[in-house]
# Entry
Amino acid sequence: MSGRDDMSAHLSMSGRGDMSARLSMSGRGDMSARLSMSGRGKGEILLHFRGNCATMGVMNVVRANGYAKLNLTLDVTGKQDGYHTLDSLVVTIGLCDRLVLKKRKDRASSVTMHGMGSEVIPPDGNNALRAAEAFSEAFGTCGADVTVYKNIPMGAGLGGSSADAAAVLLGMKKLYGVADMGGLKSLADSLGSDTGFLLFGGLARMQGRGDVLLPLNAELEMHFLVICPDEGVSSGECYGAFDRLGEHFSPVTPDAAALLERGDLPHAARYFSNRLYGAAKSLVPAAEQAYLAAKSFSPLGAAMTGSGSAAFALFETKELAEWAKSRYRGKGRAFVTESVYPKNIKPIGNPYALSEGEGEGE
# Structure
């Protein structure tokens, strides 16, 4: 042991798979461990414990995409512990926020936002920051400096803040070598009703407060025109208006789910609807304008997503969706996108190699 109270130790184990571990500790309380194994499972893992947090692996920077979602159906089924419960069909789409995460040497985390007016989000209301801090607390790791390049409009019902939280959890999972997906799902559920679903993506039936996921055995190609008004809808205010209106509807999600699993998209699309629509349009008239515009192009189906204000129209082909976009004359942003499934997502390359236009808030 040195005058700085540095300490090192070497451990070894023999057998069919030889393993050795070298531990070192500095006077600052930092400790590192290098584990080496020979034989069939040969390899090396480097762990660092800096103060009261751990780092693991060799990656210092990662990129992650946070994908938006559409609620194809949304039934309100009741209340649980003061929160509304839902039965909803959800699908991830190609629109996404881009994130860059850099490993820190302490437990703190930071988030820098770019685009779509996201710079004004206060730290205590930033789901990406909440996700980073929750991850460090749950898994005992160091934190991360996160940069979010927003492309998903805020207050549109597209799950933007939940997408960012899910991307942070997945990015930190990769940074720190955490393999506990069950623990990650529990964290995601605590951060927002869509976050657990967006951790996995694809097409699923989402129930309860969003914590119950039933993946559908179908990967249907869907082409959408999405219309996003400039004015968003507050989710809390929308659910409050729903209660005040006292509307009652028959559920549509079970029938739509059964048709989708049979691959019958045209008939399933007839059930696409959102029981929060009346509440949303009473608060923000632009939500009604977006829905009526989407419906005017004679799509397979149309509905508002989430608690609004965005609406979508489903078409048989990308060309038809592009045709509808070319004829849209309303206010707000309109874009064409498609359903995205996990196996179709390509690996992300160099964390610093942002593509042309990335981070500019399309």
